[in-house]
Write a structure and sequence with these properties.
Blueprint: E1 2-4, E2 14-16, E3 49-56, E4 64-65, E5 68-70, E6 73-77, E7 82-87, E8 93-98, E9 103-109, E10 114-118, E11 122-126, E12 132-137, E13 147-149, E14 152-156, E15 161-166, E16 172-177, E17 191-194, E18 197-202, E19 206-211, E20 217-222, E21 238-245, E22 248-253, E23 256-262, E24 268-274, E25 281-282, E26 286-290, E27 296-300, E28 306-310, E29 322-324, E30 327-331, E31 336-341, E32 347-352, E33 363-365, E34 368-372, E35 377-383
Parallel strand pairs: 4-9
Antiparallel strand pairs: 1-2, 3-35, 5-6, 6-7, 7-8, 9-10, 10-11, 11-12, 13-14, 14-15, 15-16, 17-18, 18-19, 19-20, 21-22, 22-23, 23-24, 25-26, 26-27, 27-28, 29-30, 30-31, 31-32, 33-34, 34-35
């Protein structure tokens, strides 16, 4: 039995038992009305934002895709099998290919190789011109975007098997099998490279640091601690990808905690109670984390003290946020991007994309903020 979130990154949680489902937003089915998303009010923004360009890459089909930045270009993908490389400044398409496989995860790149995951567990690698280099089969479905660094590709399948491959040949170099709790979110906990290590978000609310070259363990730490009497109450999984800032690794878990941890040892610098199924944003001063009720929270990065909370976006299924300049930006289930003051959480501006949920992790590319929606629109928003 597994908890399965139908729309990854949108906050819909379902318990799969045969053909029945149980929504986390409405745990009593028809007996109790689900919480309603907050209505947006007219905003007199104090910051100018505009749409710099848009690109249709294809629908996500319930998977989570995030653009990858390499130099002055972006690589984007969708479940339709489309992969494209575009100029980050103006969205000009350099090339576009269509794979024979339905894709379920991506994009990973180191500027020399592009890797994506297939819905049937195939890992596919391409050069920077879109030419197929190699592919290999993993043990099960790939939901987390692979990473590439220092000649190694790391991919993780849904059975929590983490595998390192030679980036040039696709040869398997190492395998690490991690335990899977009885119930987990069907989500895409991410991975990041930190020096000679890869930091892997785990089901069960754990972070693991593995040596990139060999897969040997460096440290493990619990971000979320399972609580409660039932397996359902004890579900805790990392939301989104961990974020590296200087010597801190920061992350958040569902039904768990948000916190920052020492990169070298994994020891906690601070943790605070919070539940989220999407990732955090980190800058010099703050850690920003949406909670599962739609509040956006700001914590001081050095101590974890609460700085502010904006709850005016309740139950709008917020995305992983993004810190940029004087603002923190966060997407929602209707494709809006909300810009809030990083100092006090007041609204500064709002921008629309295509009306569908923003499910991928956004990124900064020069002066543009890049968001990808469930319907496959990649939107660059310029802050002026």
């Amino acid at each position: 039995m597994r908890i399965s979130r139908k729309l990854v990154g949108v906050g819909v949680l379902a318990l799969m038992t045969g053909c029945s489902t149980l929504s986390s937003l409405n745990p009593f089915g028809d007996k109790e009305k689900a919480d309603q998303p907050a209505k947006l009010v007219e905003l007199k923004g104090t910051m100018a934002v505009r749409t710099a360009w848009k690109l249709d890459i294809g629908k996500s089909q319930g998977y989570q895709f995030s653009p990858a930045l390499t130099g002055n270009t972006l690589v984007v993908a969708s479940s339709t099998g489309a992969i494209a490389r575009v100029e980050a400044a103006d969205g000009k398409q350099l090339w576009r290919i269509k794979t024979d496989d339905e894709l379920s995860a991506g994009v990973g790149t180191d500027g020399n190789l592009i890797v994506v995951g297939g819905a049937k567990g195939k890992l596919l690698a391409f050069d920077m011109d879109g030419k197929a280099m190699w592919d290999t089969q993993l043990s099960s479905e790939i939901l987390s975007a692979p990473v590439v660094s220092q000649g190694i590709v790391v991919a993780r399948s849904i059975d929590n098997r983490i595998v390192g491959f030679d980036a040039r040949t696709g040869e398997k170099k190492w395998t690490v099998q991690k335990a899977v709790p009885p119930l987990t979110l069907r989500t895409a906990p991410g991975m990041i490279v930190a020096g000679s290590d890869v930091i892997v978000a785990q089901p069960g609310g754990k972070l693991s640091a593995l040596i990139l070259a060999t897969g040997a363990p460096r440290w493990d730490v619990e971000v979320g601690v399972a609580r409660g009497a039932t397996e359902l109450e004890r579900v805790t999984d990392i939301g989104g990808a961990p974020v590296l800032f200087e010597q801190d690794v920061c992350a958040v878990s569902y039904q768990g905690r948000v916190g920052c941890f020492d990169l070298a040892t994994g020891s906690a610098r601070w943790t605070r109670e919070l539940s989220s199924d999407v990732g955090v944003a980190v800058d010099q001063r703050f850690v920003f984390a949406p909670d599962d009720k739609g509040g956006l929270n700001a914590f001081t990065r050095d101590t974890g003290n609460s700085s502010w909370k904006n709850d005016k976006l309740s139950f709008r299924r917020l995305s992983t946020p993004l810190s940029y300049g004087r603002a923190v930006a966060v997407g929602d289930y209707e494709g809006y991007v909300h810009f809030l003051s990083r100092e006090d959480g007041t609204f500064l501006a709002r921008a629309a994309t295509d009306g569908s949920p923003i499910v991928g992790t956004p990124l900064v590319a020069g002066t543009n903020l890049i968001f990808q929606t469930q319907n496959g629109t990649v939107t660059a928003i310029a802050v002026e």
